[in-house]
Amino acid sequence: MGTNYRHQKIRRGGLMKIIQVSPTFHPDIGGIETHVKEISKRLAKKHEVYVYTTTKFKDYKKEGIIDEIKIRRFKSYAPSNAYFFSPGLYKALKNEECDILHLHNFHAFPAYLAYRAFKNKKLKKLIFTPHYHHIASAKFRGFLHKFYDPIQSAIFKKADKILCATRYEIELLTEKFEIPKNKMKRIPNGIDLKRLKKYSFKKRNDPNEFKILCVSRLEKYKRIQWLITALKEVSEKYPKKEISLTIIGKGSYGDHIRNLIKELGLKDKVIIKYNLPDDKFLQEYQKCDVFVLPSEYEAFSIVTLEALCMGKPVIVSNVGFMRDLSENTGYKISCVEDIVEGLSEIIENGFKLEFNPNEYTWDRIVEEVLKVYEE
Asked: Model confidence over 57-84: pLDDT tens digits?
């Protein structure tokens, strides 16, 4: 089966043995998966780093090494790709020891299972990054959270430090679980600036064109239907402008979105893409004039951060990471009319973006995480 590293002892002499626990992990795609991978591969340059994670696939590789990260995967029960309940993960962690146990994602069971497995063990630090957004994506899940939340909240009491991606997340946790603010620390998600700078494209400088970009799963709560409705109004308001919208993503609300595009007569103005290679994906940022994400809720929104780092103004909901943004980055919206107003302002007057991407590099984020581990 390969290298057996599951019972290696705690490293001494400045090196720490760090276990990260995440519901899913690379090559699965998502904000949490990216977060855990990026901090783990940097920590692994100086420390022993393990990722304990789950999978619902039968043909998974149980053990492996990626970027010096030692990975163990366990089969999980994940109805509708949620919760990721894994007795195997719990059993394996019962036989483990480490200096730092770092748990991820309040909204799935692996964090709680790891907490239970280590409940009576001595740790240097128990760290929890909840990636909390408080809204269930379905009514039944919302019902389950009445029972689920009190169980998971035990981790908040035991954790030495709770790391939150946004000030908004700190506010939510303070209100919902009455966690003292001095127990929480804001450490945002990061960005790989080298990746963004790797590709260089020329933007077409046609004053008659205005290109809008939205990168999002096609789900109802993402409110892309708002953006399409706003596109109809703006196109009628500026008939001499060639206004177009590119949406990158797929999801369960896709048919509704396509029907709305057809109903409003926007088939020639909207294109939906997905599964783009990285160079083509980054090219879409380069080509656009503005990035729009009207989502009802977001824990963070890496794509908004990417757009800003690529020098694009944003029109976004006042939630998650976007709530932390200043007025020098774009416009905050709460309805279709706000989107129309923001687009109109940029079409008529342009926008002078003021944003420092260096505050969000993964190297800087990992420095902050290490300070928490070592303090």
From this structure: 766 678 899 899 999 999 999 887 778 9
Do 101 and 176 lie in a common domain? yes
pTM strictly above 0.70? yes
- Per residue in 333-347, pLDDT tens? 999 999 999 999 999
- Contact assessment for residue 351 and residue 330, using Cβ atoms and an 8 Å cutoff: yes
- d(CA 20, CA 370) in angstroms, rounded, equals 13
Same domain? For 141 and 162 the reply is yes
In-domain check, residue 8: no
For tokens 């976007």, the residue is 322
Q: Give, for 306, the enclosing helix (H) or strand (E).
A: helix 302-309
Name the 3-class secondary structure at 23: coil
Instruction: For residues 241 and 142, state if they share a domain.
Output: no
- Give the DSSP letter of residue 294: -
The pair of structure tokens assigned to 46 is 């100086």
| Own/partner pairs, 327-336, CB within 8 angstroms, 24+ separation | 328/352, 328/353, 328/354, 328/355, 329/353, 329/354, 329/355, 330/290, 330/291, 333/294, 335/226, 336/226, 336/229, 336/230, 336/233
Asked if 47 and 73 touch (Cβ cutoff 8 Å), the reply is: no
Instruction: Give the gyration radius of the chain's Cα atoms.
Output: 22
**Cα 333 from Cα 341, distance rounded (Å):** 9
Kindly state whether residues 103 and 200 are assigned to the same domain. Answer: no
Burial class (CB in 10 A: 0-12, 13-18, 19+), 185: middle
Domain range for residue 102? 17-187
DSSP symbols for 177-203: H---GGGEEE----B-HHHHHH---PP
